[in-house]
Amino acid sequence: RRARPREDERAGMALRVFASRCARGAARVSSARAFATSPSTTADEPPTTADEASTSSTHRGEAKTASFGYVEVDAREKESLVRGVFERVAPSYDVMNDLMSAGVHRLWKDYFVSKVGVFAGMTHLDVAGGTGDIAFRVLRALQRVEREAELDGQVLDANTRGKVVVSDINPAMLREGMKRATQRGLNQEQLTWLEGNAEKLPVEDESVDVYTIAFGLRNVTDTRAAIADAYRCLKPGGKYMILEFSHVENEILKQVYDFYSFNVIPKLGELVARDRGSYQYLVESIRKFPPQEKLKSMMRDVGFKHVSHENLTGGMVAVHTGYKTKD
Fold this sequence. Notes:
This protein has 327 residues and is α/β, with parallel strands linked by helices. Helix content is 48%, strand content 20%. The chain contains 12 helices and 10 strands. Helix 1 runs parallel beside helix 9. The radius of gyration is 20 Å and the shape is globular.
């Protein structure tokens, strides 16, 4: 009986922080640039059932379809459509994430990487990570851990040091990440870049210790195929981690978040990037993504064990974790 008030207090605090960030972000953007005049369309949120949200692709007769936001498209077309979205937003990707999360994404990513469990000599694969937001954090942690290991007497060389592989389907995102790595002066000897589709990555079986995907799984055509391929890539004992926009559970917070998503984000996308459509898609793609429990079930279905999830900011984002066991 006493637990409920504490939950309400946490939700209320998350709501106040998010609303405050939204207001400050909107004020900064509106003062920076006049409203764009390019044609655009708007869409109110239609009712979406749990079954609709839980499937990334469906069959209609012989034609396989996939959801591109609220629009059902030929599954073969979704990859190119999503590629187009991210080619357009790549130069302003940080701004996009700031708009989508009112700036809180930086805290979510810091927390996510803190749960990775970086260790000397590990192979880390970050998928849909073209701009390097997660990979750079992991690389810095890996280099710090390996310096400490060497101070403790462990001998590491080019063959035994860990490595971080950044994979993305979109070359524009990878180019943006490479540019940022250079601009930030990162030691890139342990960093490699790989173009590939998350549904079938050009990665050897059982070659990865930790596989992360942050804010990318909802953009693949076949969610189940991407999860299954992650399982294939991981070594026995390997760890799979997903950071993704999810489904808000507190009703008050959900109402504020939905209003912000559908009424503010597309307009800010038009103001900042002169691209309302891409931001409209990104908002809609969140609503079509499987809710927390359904995603856990999908992970278990392909073989992951000890599957869990943790909601952040009231469920706006969730961290899902699973393991490929050694037996």
